[in-house]
Design goal:
The structure is a homotrimer. With about 400 residues, chain A is α+β, with helices and mostly antiparallel strands. The first copy, chain A, folds into two domains: about 110 residues, Rieske Iron-sulfur Protein (3-layer Sandwich), CATH 2.102.10; about 210 residues, Naphthalene 1,2-dioxygenase Alpha Subunit, Chain A, domain 1 (Alpha-Beta Complex). The first copy, chain A, is built from nine helices and 21 strands. In chain A, the strands form six sheets. Chain A has a seven-stranded antiparallel β-sheet. In chain A, strands 4-5-6-10 form a four-stranded antiparallel β-sheet, with no helix packed on it. The first copy, chain A, is elongated, with a radius of gyration of 24 Å. Chains A and B meet through strand 1, strand 2, helix 4 and strand 16 of A and strand 8 and strand 9 of B.
């Protein structure tokens, strides 16, 4: 049981057990699936690369703790398990002598990209007995490329349709989006939880430039946070009564400088674009979606290993023609730097990397969003049985 | 049982068990308190910072394996356990919005510095239910500031008076002292033991400048080393017959160049200040004191974790007015560089960091100082029971 | 049992157990001597330094996981276990006040280099009681210096004659040789196995400059690889039918650019020196020997610890007078850079350091060389009993 040191009423300090609602702390409880999912949930499609990142040179990547090698052949991306079955060498250090094959750099074992079958063992001649034998191929992974993103199915059995797993903003032609990737030095779960965390934004991001421009006047606290399943998402809504400024006993006024925010909000109401409140949602396996007035922010926090997460962040809007161009331009001139680089890569990355996720926890009212996220993932994540997984 | 390889008489080499007096090697014996005290002895006051090192910005420090955050408010220093009870964030990365409180950087949980109580959860409004609830505060540590040093009580229960634990040279107004801190990459025990080690000085420090000027003619060996309890110290005295130079069978003359030392000592007797032999003492929890002719050297070797030690070194003298000023001047022009930086930070740090403290040991006559230190610490260190600890 | 992920026939992917001949994978089987020999085989002579690398200053080196200190006295090299029995300090940081002794830098314990006996404890005076006592010496190692190389016997009991363990090219006066040392970040076994690996050369080294000049036309594959014991070596011979170029189904022609190689080989036959095919051999404890037309390449891959190997590489030829000089000149102008630095230090080092030696394996025909090497070492390595070891 988690313990901590604190000063007790009689002046002595002792190690105390935390007294918390056992339902809340799923990831601390042994035997839970969310608690065990240090390396993420399998049996889902995950984005692996942006199309522009993959060419004819093999590229290695770790996803959910597995080493994969990706390579493009005849225009199509392929993925294999990145270890030659012969002696354990990395295939990603090898060469694609012909399109559609990859050759191990050690003894020339050559695999077909399509299915991982061993088609030649060069240094044993064209009639080598190992070729075509059972058990000599490497695992191949189902891969799909859509709208500039390469997805890989990390699981057993036949994969579901891509549309089952990937937000429509990234698949349907009526949307445009721009993307950025980055690596955070943390487990993937605090990264996802932080994205759905109802109250950290009003403190951590309060003084960020982006926040100020997107909202009329963000409340400093809310009476209630509710999560409910809507399609494939768990959607969070903050209910009133809302608080904007108050005197805290023993502390004083907070937020500071609220008058400035109010004045800005007032001016904004008059001159600025109409803003609608942000809606935040999470989705399995590791997606965070924020809907803003005219665009959506979609973030995958993909497990690399237990201590590293690859963030795939996309800003998507429903635009055509010139408007689509303007959206892209705005992204490259503003959002990429202010939203993606500063806001997410700066403030959120800093938080998540400094957090001791293994520490005991004490929840308060706004944390119902975290509790509901954990329960939703626990209950709805696909299981290891592919048939079962497909039923979802 | 500790083993080592050696060549035996019949020409074979085998792993041999060390045959040593079991009383000597306390830190190797399971079940001893000294052996278990990898992270130091709790229930003592320890120096944490020099006053000039702490301002209104929170500062984290690790002592005895615990993370603490120190901050100054209304001129007074405070210390809390450096982890927000909410989600495990470091408080030391937070902000002091008002003097006397510290706010977690993640969700604005705000603690009173004085006692660690949670007085506000900013993002849950002024009426948050977590405020004032049992078990939501962080541990606060007793802190005292005296003569430019900030002390913290690392233990349970009510702390004893500071005078119980801290040498009078650092507390009484009739003394002046100057201090320097540093980190050694070693456990704290070899650092303390090295300071009390009767014989290493005559070899390691024999050719250091400081040694030569402080002593008339240091003996190369002594007939006996005696330790006895004097007040709060274990004091070591070297007894004769003393040796200054000899022919060692199979080796030859040692020390080399003793004639030069003798000549210098002779000249020194005529022209130099009268020197009195150094007295060395140790004191719980991790203090080494050396009394020289007109000043004392006091060193705390404070456990950071099992492999790092913070050395708090002070040179103290009983001076007033102009003499005090002269003493400080001498420190900054001479002792700081020759004594603290070269002698201690150079030679002793090098020794202690290179030593394999986990190796088996074979003691010789001068090591009685080490044996007596270990026995004294083993017997006299305060126990985990605060009442018991107070009785000492 | 080793497992891997692969795509099965029915489209599902599962963890499959590798099905391999249990005789092949000696180093994966618990209970085998080769599998346990992570730190190498003891009871052999190993080269430790080149003569020119050792002077009167003590030098530490790790061999087979043991720390040794080497030093030269009166022209002879000596080796002791590099840890003072007193407090565990490294003797290699100490000083040789007189030729034939080494003094610990901490308290002046002084050992005789010849046998490791403690002959003085300087800081305890010339009559110290520890001197001459049983169990106070450090282990000394048998050391021999021949033709510019310093050898040490890493084992128990009386060592065999150096001639038992070291190739005659390095001992007999009719040979000249030049040497180079380097450290690889891998275990010693993949380094030795790679040197004896029959098929990697035709793929890894096919495009290296050295290969092209040494051979007429290297076959790309061979019908059979045979190993047989010849004296102290296990010698490998590749038998036909040999293949030089072929069309591989589903892959195409390999090797590429064979026409260029053929043309070069043709020209070479006319104008170049007559080449004889290379013969490869291995020898206990960790030797690889390649015999070329007019010289031999001898490599020791000596275990430092489980993850580092010191390669001692030598090129030896049977030459006298001016021819010997020419051989040395050729080495320094050509072989050292092309053979030792590029070929071995470049290509082989890269392979061995990238290999996951702990991965499951699937062997093919040419791997019979690896299998035979493992079986030979397993059966013939000296045991821990010195008498037994001598019988070999």
């Amino acid at each position: 049981m988690a313990k901590t040191l604190r000063q007790t009423d009689d002046g002595t300090a002792r190690e105390l057990e935390y007294v918390t609602d056992p339902d809340e702390q799923l990831e601390k409880k042994p035997g839970t699936r969310y608690g065990a999912a240090e390396l993420g949930f399998r049996h889902y499609w995950y984005p692996a690369f942006l199309s522009r990142q993959l060419g004819k040179k093999p590229k290695s990547v770790m996803l959910l703790g597995e080493n994969l090698v990706f390579v493009r052949a005849n225009g199509r991306p392929y993925a294999l398990f990145d270890r030659c079955v012969h002696r354990g060498m990395q295939l990603s250090e090898g060469k694609c002598w012909t399109e559609g094959t990859i050759t191990c750099p050690y003894h020339g074992w050559t695999y077909r990209l399509r299915d991982g079958e061993l088609i030649a063992a060069l240094t044993d001649g064209p009639e080598s007995a190992v070729v075509g034998k059972k058990g000599k191929g490497v695992r191949s992974y189902p891969v799909e490329e859509r709208n500039g993103v390469i997805y890989v199915y990390m699981g057993d059995g036949n994969p579901p349709a891509l549309e089952e797993d990937v937000p429509e903003e990234l698949l349907k032609p009526e949307y445009v989006f721009e993307a950025v990737t980055s690596v955070w030095n943390s487990n993937w779960r605090p990264a996802v939880e932080n994205g759905y965390d109802a109250s950290h934004a009003t403190y951590v991001h309060r003084y960020s430039l982006r926040w100020r421009t997107q909202f009329n006047l963000p409340p400093a606290w809310a009476g209630k946070v509710e999560s409910q399943v809507e399609g494939k998402y768990l959607i969070q809504r903050r209910r009133g009564p809302f608080g904007f400024e108050a005197n805290y006993p023993g502390f004083g006024l907070w937020p500071r400088h609220a008058w400035l925010r109010k004045a800005l909000a007032k001016a904004r109401k008059k001159f600025g674009p109409k803003g609608t409140p942000m809606i935040a949602g999470v989705r399995l396996p590791c997606l965070i979606v924020n809907h803003y007035s005219y665009y959506s922010h979609i973030r995958y926090s993909i497990p690399i290993d237990a201590k590293h997460t690859r963030n795939f962040q996309m800003l998507a809007g429903r635009f055509h023609g010139l408007k689509a161009l303007a959206f892209r331009l705005q992204y490259w001139l503003w959002h990429r730097w202010v939203f993606h680089k500063w806001f997410n890569e700066g403030q959120d990355k800093w938080i998540v990397e400094h957090l001791d996720y293994s520490a005991p926890e004490q929840f308060f009212r706004p944390d119902s969003s975290i509790v509901q996220l954990r329960k939703y993932f626990e209950k709805n994540a696909r299981t290891s049985d592919p048939i079962d997984g497909m039923k979802e």
